[in-house]
Design goal:
single chain; 106 residues; alpha/beta; globular
Length: 106
């Protein structure tokens, strides 16, 4: 993509949306709607969370959005560093890839 001008990409840009849970909250709903709304020709949405249960999980899976469950309790704890290194850093090394973090407990 070029500023102010939309160009087609050879491969969709990965977008990682992170949240603590996939429960009934408003933030979770907004994240789910955003993941479902991405133009799949341009973006490839993924969701990472700590608690992958509830109807938002099912809704994301029905729309083909991969959901990764992270082995941690909060994005600010020590276990978050391990999870980030093991699961998140490697796939998102290029500057054109996007990461969005939501942790309402932080």
């Amino acid at each position: 993509m070029i500023m102010g001008k939309l160009t087609m990409v050879s491969q969709p840009v990965p977008v990682l949306l992170m949240t603590r849970s996939l429960g009934p909250g408003g933030s979770e709903r907004q994240m789910t709607e955003a993941a479902k709304a991405f133009d799949r020709r341009l973006f490839c949405p993924h969701v990472a969370c700590v608690e992958a249960s509830g109807f938002r999980f099912d809704e994301l899976r029905e729309h083909g959005v991969p959901v990764l469950t992270l082995p941690m309790h909060s994005f600010l704890g020590r276990d978050a560093w391990h999870a980030a290194g093991a699961y998140l850093i490697a796939p998102f090394k290029n500057p054109e890839e996007v990461l969005h973090l939501l942790d309402e407990t932080a």
